[in-house]
Design brief:
Helices cover 32% and strands 24% of the residues. It has 204 residues and is an alpha/beta fold.
C-alpha cells in the first residue's frame, strides 16, 4: 500500500509530567487514491494522526511510509495564513520559488486558479488576510493546500466557517480529485464526509 502506518505509538508529557498515550501499536494501510474519513470525539488523536502522516510529528515507535516523490497538502484547523503576504502570496508560498519573471507569472496564475477553485474572485488575490473575512481566509487555506496538486491531501476540519453552498462546491471538487489522489479527512460533520464520498475508517 502507498501509505502505510506500521505499529505506530505516540504520546506526550503533560504539564504534570505524566505521559499521556494517544496511539499504541496503530497499524493502517491506505491506497494511493480515494477519500477516507476519520471520525471520533474531540481529543482522541485525529489531528495528531494527520500531523504524524504529514511528518510534523514523529512516532515514539513504529513507522509511517509513503512514496518519496509524493507531495503533501494540508488544511489545518486554523487558517495559518502569513499576514505579510496577500492571499495570492500565501498560496504561492508552497510552490517552487521562481527564478525568472515568466516563472513568477506562472506561479501567480496558478495561485489565482487555485483561489478561483476555492471560490474566491480574481480581485481577492491581492488582499491581505487582515482585510478578509473568516470565510475568505478559509478558502485561501484550501487553495494553498490544492495549488501544487498533491498526491496526499490531509484535511483537518477544512470547511470551518464556510456556508453550505461553498461546502458543496468544494466537496464536489475534492470528490472528483479523490479519483486520482489520496485524501484523508477529519470532520465532525457526517454530511461533509458524505459530500466528498469519503469512506469511513473506525480507528478511534
Amino acid at each position: 500500500m502507498p501509505l502505510g502506518i506500521e505499529g505506530v505509538s505516540f504520546g506526550y508529557i503533560d504539564n504534570s509530567g505524566t505521559h499521556r498515550g494517544i496511539f499504541d501499536n496503530l497499524t493502517l494501510e491506505l491506497p494511493d487514491t480515494g477519500a477516507f474519513w476519520l471520525p471520533g470525539p474531540s481529543g482522541c488523536g485525529k489531528t495528531t494522526l494527520l500531523r504524524l502522516i504529514a511528518g510534523l510529528e514523529q512516532p515514539r515507535s513504529g513507522r509511517i511510509t509513503k512514496p518519496a516523490h509524493w507531495r503533501t497538502g494540508m488544511v489545518f484547523q486554523e487558517d495559518r495564513l502569513l499576514p505579510w503576504h496577500t492571499l495570492s502570496g500565501n498560496v504561492r508560498v508552497v510552490l517552487p520559488q521562481p527564478d525568472r519573471s515568466t516563472a513568477a507569472q506562472t506561479a501567480a496564475e496558478q495561485a489565482v486558479a487555485a483561489l478561483d477553485l476555492a471560490g474566491l474572485p480574481p480581485d481577492a488575490a491581492g488582499l491581505y488576510p487582515a482585510a478578509c473575512s473568516g470565510g475568505m481566509k478559509r478558502r485561501a487555506a484550501i487553495a494553498r493546500a490544492l495549488v501544487n496538486d498533491p498526491e496526499l491531501l490531509l484535511l483537518d476540519e477544512p470547511f470551518t466557517g464556510l456556508d453550505q453552498d461553498a461546502v458543496k462546491k468544494i466537496a464536489a471538487h475534492l470528490r472528483q480529485r479523490s479519483q486520482r489522489r489520496l485524501i484523508v479527512l477529519v470532520t465532525h460533520k457526517i454530511e461533509e464526509a458524505e459530500a466528498m464520498g469519503a469512506e469511513k475508517m473506525e480507528i478511534f
